[in-house]
Amino acid sequence: MSNHMPKPSRRQGLHFEPLWWLLFSAGGVCFAVFVPAVALIFGVLWPLGIIDISLAQLQGYYSSLWGLVFTGAVIFLPAFHAAHRIRHAFHDFKLGGGSTTAFICCGTAAVVSFVAIWAWFMLPG
Amino acid sequence: MRSIQVLRYLPEESPQPFLQSFQVPVTDSTSVLDALNYIKESLDPTLSFRWSCRMAICGSCGVMVNGIPKLGCKDFLRNYPNDLIIEPLAHLPVERDLVVNMDSFLRHLEAVKPYLIEGKNAADSSQPNRQTPAQMARYQQFANCINCGLCYAACPQFGLNPEFTGPAAIALAHRYNLDSRDSGKAQRMAPLNSKNGVWSCTFVGFCSEVCPKGVDPAAAVNQGKVESAKSMLIQLFSGRAIGGAGQ
Amino acid sequence: MSYKPQLTGSWWLKHRFFKAYMLREATVIPLAFLLCSLLAGAFSLQDPERFQHWQAFMSNPLVILVHTLALTTSLYHAATFFVLFPRVMPIRVGNYQLPARYLVLAQWGAVWLVVALFIWLFAFGGQS
Ligand code: SF4
Ligand code: FES
């Protein structure tokens, strides 16, 4: 057999899996590195009254560029991480997991991310 | 003496597989394969199973022991003080007793061309093909595979989708892609890039857990995802053949 | 003639290893809840009254419970995820393979660094 192959078209055999996987991986890192601190502060310490956070302080932080970084690292990427895992769980449970499931899961993550970025823009700052 | 159970399948006698108990003599060094050989020689010559080397080299004696893929010759009865059930490897069609049909496994292996492919990295085949220890270290771990198929029996993604290229085949593809003497990466990337290639894996990781040779096929598959992502990106922007021009 | 047992949707209940896998996958469920809470929080910053509503929601005992679960599962996720990194991207310098445990430790270091940063920012107002 010869090693010569006909030149394939640019898009032949391409699909979106690498993109979803890269978002999943980046989101997995953020989920592991940033989410514990966020869950601890906003989900536990603040509601229990152990620390006190004022609206002005949050507005100050969030309306800066750091607010956008926070949105990217704590909402956007983890949302795609979650979408990927949920989609594969459907496949594991034999309840789908094909392109329709992928579209719904990644679509939800995209909407959540879009809304989060919108919330950041809405803040005057 | 102790009792062990074996899942029998004798299609001419019964269309259903059934469990059968046997009393076998045990010492501290009785392997699962020894027990099966004792049954065949002394109790029931109709029992069918594969074996050859009895030293974890040939890769033919894979069975499920209490639901976990094992090499019969490398697993010992002393590890199972209570119940012991021996079944054929999971996720493959069973022909008879413990004998499974390995065709789909072999088909996946063949598809990734697990051999050195000549090209610009091995220009003259009349010359010795030199390699430094550092070049060898890159792929050596993945070269230890004995094609036993335990990882396929461990992989739920292969169980759910038999078209998935699967752990050992992807590990071998990765092994040759990492080899400085090889020029075949472009040809191997096409099956790896497909949805039934590396992208069917969810890093369950059980394949690496059961591998009797420490190959870590799960690592190979997921390193393959990085390679596949690169290869598809290059294709998208350059319009070149899948996988680019090899190493 | 041959037979082939088919996997059912509950295959993962059959072995401890697969249950741990499903637990890892399920860590995203409390995460999804936390993300929604944070999203609501991001919107509540525009208006003091809405911010109070959000604070009341976050202080609901049930919500605190789910968020505590999210904290726990995020650490479980971290434990499972960090060990994968050196396997997917092994770092090799010539003949020297960087031991995986250094990479794992470095990632845990990052987690504690971020926790310290958040505590400094919110408990001490970013003042030293
Ligand atoms: S990777 Fe390991 S378990 Fe899989 S076939 Fe090779 S030796 Fe067997
Ligand atoms: S008999 Fe050869 S590997 Fe077990």
UniProtKB/TrEMBL annotation, chain B:
Residues 5-92 form the 2Fe-2S ferredoxin-type domain. Keywords: 2Fe-2S, 3Fe-4S, 4Fe-4S, Iron, Iron-sulfur, Metal-binding, Oxidoreductase, Tricarboxylic acid cycle, Ubiquinone. CDD domains: fer2 (cd00207). Binds 1 [4Fe-4S] cluster. It comes from the Bacteria. It is an enzyme of class 1 (oxidoreductase). Its cofactor is [4Fe-4S] cluster; [2Fe-2S] cluster; [3Fe-4S] cluster. Residues 135-165 form the 4Fe-4S ferredoxin-type domain. It catalyses: a menaquinone + succinate = a menaquinol + fumarate. Its EC number is 1.3.5.1. The keyword Metal-binding applies. Pathway: Carbohydrate metabolism; tricarboxylic acid cycle; fumarate from succinate (bacterial route): step 1/1. InterPro entries: 2Fe-2S_ferredoxin-like_sf (IPR036010), 2Fe-2S_ferredoxin-type (IPR001041), 2Fe2S_fd_BS (IPR006058), 4Fe4S_Fe-S-bd (IPR017896), 4Fe4S_Fe_S_CS (IPR017900), Beta-grasp_dom_sf (IPR012675), Helical_ferredxn (IPR009051), SDH/FRD_Iron-Sulfur (IPR050573). Belongs to the succinate dehydrogenase/fumarate reductase iron-sulfur protein family. This is Fumarate reductase iron-sulfur subunit.
UniProtKB/TrEMBL annotation, chain C:
Gene3D superfamilies: Fumarate reductase/succinate dehydrogenase, transmembrane subunit. InterPro entries: Fumarate_red_C, SQR/QFR_C/D. The chain crosses the membrane at residues 21-43, 63-85, 105-125. Keywords: Cell membrane, Membrane, Transmembrane, Transmembrane helix. It comes from the Bacteria. This is Fumarate reductase subunit C. It comes from Aliidiomarina sedimenti.
